[in-house]
Amino acid sequence: MKIVIVRHAKVLIKNKKIYANELKKAIEEYDYTDKKIMKLSLFTWAFWFKLAWYMGFSGGAKSYQESKDEAFKASKILIDLAKEYGSVMLMGHGLKNRLIATALRQQGWIERKKMKMDNLDYGVFILS
């Protein structure tokens, strides 16, 4: 059995500097504050928000623990599909892929090809 996890292609977002209140325009599904404290690039804001998320601040979104639980459930689905079809492939976001990869390893799967965080890179997992 084999499970392949692929990171999606490069996102076409211009890395221009924006204020926190402009994130709503850049990411419609989030509603951030109107305080004009600092002007940082979208990727810098993402870094700080992700760091806060790891520390337990989720701002109404799924918590880190909820995301880990969701990844474990996804890994179970992938395992069931691999049992049925022999091999399966998932394409997703880097962080979600990493959480699923961790869940697979915890369940005895071996990472035959290590997944990097590069766009369109992939990891290959086999059952030990």
Report on the structure:
The chain is of the alpha+beta class and 128 residues long. It folds into two domains: 2-9 and 63-127, no CATH class; 17-54, no CATH class. It is built from four helices and six strands; from the N terminus they run ββαβααβαββ. The protein has helices at residues 23-26, 42-54, 64-85, 94-106, and strands spanning 2-7, 17-19, 39-41, 87-92, 109-113, 122-127. The strands form two sheets. A four-stranded mixed sheet has the order 4-1-6-5, covered by helices on one side. Strands 2-3 form a two-stranded antiparallel sheet. The longest helix has 22 residues, at 64-85. The chain is elongated and about 50 Å long. The protein starts with a strand and ends with a strand. The relative contact order is 0.24.
Number of strands: 6
Number of domains: 2
**On the 0-100 scale, what is the average pLDDT?**
84
Helix content: 40-55%
Order of helices and strands: EEHEHHEHEE
Structural class per helix/strand content?
Answer: alpha+beta
End-to-end Cα distance: 10 Å
Radius of gyration over all CA atoms, rounded: 17 Å
Q: Which regions are unreliable across 5 or more consecutive residues at pLDDT < 50?
A: 29-34
What characteristic shape results from the CA principal axes? Answer: elongated
What oligomeric state is this? single chain
Query: Total number of helical segments?
Result: 4
How do the strands of the widest beta sheet line up side by side? 4-1-6-5
What's the main sheet like?
Answer: 4 strands, mixed
The share of residues in extended strands comes to 15-25%
